[in-house]
Amino acid sequence: MILFYTPNSPYARTARIALREWNLLGAAEERLAANREADNPVLAFSPVGRVPTLVHADLVITEARSVFAYIRNFAGGENAGEVDWKTVAEEGQIAGFLEGIAFWVRENRRTPESRSDFLLKVEHDRMMRCLSHFDTLAAAGALPVVSEFRSAALASALQLMDAHQLCPDWKKNKALAAWFEQQRDRPSMRETEPQL
After folding, report:
1. What's the predicted TM-score (pTM) here?
2. Is 32 helix (H, G, I), strand (E, B) or coil?
3. Which residues fall in a coiled-coil region (predicted)?
4. Residue 35: pLDDT band by 50, 70, 90 thresholds?
């Protein structure tokens, strides 16, 4: 296991505490990340690029609560073996994408002189990495319909991104665009469309 962290992140700290509480320091390597930097080592594993990120075999788990639960589960703690960790990992990637899109929309509502060009670039880069990642998942048929949380969050983020024209040419990710169009036609999506 590899746990990416930054020393001052309270979210990453929870994962580092879990490794110690559950006696798994010998089973995991703690590696420093470089949030919001182009050379962030987390980006080799996760397009979201935030901490904590736990990498174990083919799983990449990014939400602090999920990372903590995975460590506890791995150590044989409560509810061991009852969680679909692949789904949890996918949900973390998608939640990070949704978070970035929501931040970008909020930042663009500020007056131009109040906006952070640096943070807008960070979110743009995250968006582009995530779109490519999700296009790969869509091409492999790995994205379920919006009755699953991860797909509902992804479709919501894509529609918000599209409505605010954050990436006008995002549909060049053809598999993802086709998946989105199928989801957008579902009654649950039409009935809950935001009023922008």
Report:
1. 0.78
2. strand
3. none
4. confident
